[in-house]
Specification:
Helix content is about 60%, strand content about 0%. With about 210 residues, the chain is mainly α. The chain has one domain. The radius of gyration is 17 Å and the shape is globular.
Length: about 210
Amino acid sequence: MTLPTREQAQRLMQEAERLNPGPWVRHSWYVAEAACAIAQRHPALEPESAWIMGFLHDIGRRAGKTAMRHTLDGYAFLMEQGFNTAARLCITHVFPIKDLQAVACQWDCSAEEMAFLEAFLAGIEFDLYDRLIQLCDAIALPTGFCLMEKRLMDVALRHGVNDRSIERWQAFLGIQQAFEADLGCSIYMLLPGVVENTFGFESSVLPRVE
């Protein structure tokens, strides 16, 4: 793997936040934390690598307020830094379905850039880390971990839906089910604060059930 260290990744993100501050930075931190927690239990994943990939998946947002272009901007930036493995995740994290048209919002790339992305996807097979970051991206809000359904609705309310939305949601749920089969438990058992962040209140105020 060609990844930065955690310290290098943090410096890259600090620079990115200065360039384009916003809630995407906290979202990235929660994606990293979720990826690490799941990887700690998964026999085929390395937790520190998972954390770094999750933390940098949206680094393309350093370039400014864009739509799907952030995938290509992140890939190009991390490739320039020599971090090829991390660069790959900047693209693959938005594709639970390997299809340029099955994404949540609009492409704002040139025809040549779209051709590159199409060829890139055609030339790879998604591995466990690709699927892990896709999963963690779908369970992390800037405020913390949440049920996948809440995160998917959050994206739909901000970007709208299209004729591939249901297929896309089903793909995310399928990724979750596959990981849970490997883990032998719900992913939510590994993540603190899911109830509070999903439903918007502290668990301490829940009524007791006798």
